Amino acid sequence: MLESAVAVTSGCRHNTYDAVVVGSGPNGLSAALTLARQGQSVLVVEAEDTIGGGLRTRELTLPGFQHDVCATVMAMTTLSPFMRSIDWAEYGVEWAVPHYPLAHPLDGGRAAVQTTTVAGTVNRLGEDGIGWERMLGPLDAHTPALMEDLLGPFRFPPKHPFLMAQFGVRAAFSARSMARMLFRSEQAQALYLGHAAHSILPLTKPFTSAVGLLLAASAHCTGWPVARGGSQRIADAIARSFTDRGGEIVTGWRVEHIDELPNAKAYLFDTSPHALAKIAASRLPGSFCDRLTAYRFGPGAFKLDLALSDPIPWTAQECRLAGTVHVCGGADELVASEAAAWSDRPTDKPFVLVVQPTVFDPTRAPDGKHTCWAYCHVPNNATIDMTEPVLAQIERFAPGFRDTILAMHIMSPGAFQRYNPNYVGGDIIGGVQDLGQMFTRPVARWNPYTTPQRDLFICSASTPPGAGIHGMCGYFAAQAALRQILR
């Protein structure tokens, strides 16, 4: 496990606080820091022995091999208004950026590649470069401004209405329709659909194009960096900024009932809606708890963490320089894979997301050795073992890959939920982000972070803007608490 430098205690030092935050994932920590910056006394309570939620780094396979249990690639982190407020260098966080943010191998030794610029990607896509330019060119120079509107609750009017209108026209389509409209080649369609597949929705659904646009734009803007040494360093940096302002963190305390917590003016829950309904049932109306428990979760994740003797021997040389590799055949295979995750029969040729951080951050493994992780989408709470299909997909595009494996750690959807109860059924994005739930996370309310009980708030990824290491769910929940009760 990556050693944490954050000061934690085994019990709270006071009987009363301005606010108590339950959960120390990136949103719980961002909520706590936002409140502490306003002079509030804040306690963070964490069920596990280490802070971080989706930002933990552990030796899952062999000594000296550091694996991020969940998030590695910080696609949205350096674009987030909250995250940009932190002096990362002050707290020892260094960003490592791959040569290419993304590659997508195809049969026959070919690969589609996204570079860090629109122009570079356009040049690699041949005749389909025109479509890529049409799709992302108008947004490219304004991505940080666009994120100010996208990384938050639905607001009207938005801060940047013209940019949002440009984005919205493209975002409303299904990813499959957008790919067919803009691109002819298998390479360009696969490159774009791989981005959209992060939505964990059938790619024929409306608005799946939005996720593809968002991630493709972020890759051009930031290059998809990672925290050198492991994602735990990001959580530790936020936590240290919090404790430097007098904040307090207690680990090893799994909250079962709200009455266990010390007195506070406000309570913020970095938990699933289901968990909030259970913990705070005595203080919330039964009808509201019913709405929380009706919140929908989607497909789960099946993940392999691997210790390797050598880099993955991709046939396409470009893949050897990419931080993230989307592994699947062409567009039809990718669309079929994501549809299967919503059925009771996962495909034997899954869309596999591979991240190989040691290609550009060698601090995560012993000299000359490497780590990677690979995961695919499966039905919620599925028990099927996808190890062989995942390995076979990588071997298909990197012959000899199996020979590099020194050790392997497997996480099924059930294991993800045991690791973090917020990942209900293995859903690592905090709930379905389709049209029916996009604007009603976790329930339909004017302020989605509030509850009928004035002092209770929810700040997890089950609130807007949803999944991603951006901290904005916690930031906006803290703002709600400051306006409503912590004045």
Could you characterize what this model shows?
Strands 7-6-12-13-14-11-15 form a seven-stranded mixed sheet, with helices on both faces. It has a five-stranded parallel sheet with strand order 9-2-1-10-16, with helices on one face. It folds into two domains: 16-56 and 230-295 and 430-484, FAD/NAD(P)-binding domain (3-Layer(bba) Sandwich); 95-223 and 298-419, Polyamine Oxidase, Chain A, domain 2 (Alpha-Beta Complex). Helix content is 33%, strand content 16%. The mean pLDDT is 93. The protein is built from 17 helices and 16 strands. The chain has 487 residues and is of the alpha/beta class. Helix 7 packs antiparallel against helix 8 (186-196) and helix 7 crosses helix 9 (208-222). The radius of gyration is 21 Å and the shape is globular.
Order the strands across the largest sheet as they lie in space.
7-6-12-13-14-11-15
Strand residue content: 15-25%
* Most strands sheet: 7 strands, mixed
Low-confidence segments, given as residue ranges, are: none
Mean pLDDT, rounded to whole units?
93
Which CATH architecture of the largest domain would you pick? Answer: Alpha-Beta Complex
How many strand segments?
Answer: 16
The shape is globular
Structural class: alpha/beta
CATH topology of the largest domain: Polyamine Oxidase, Chain A, domain 2
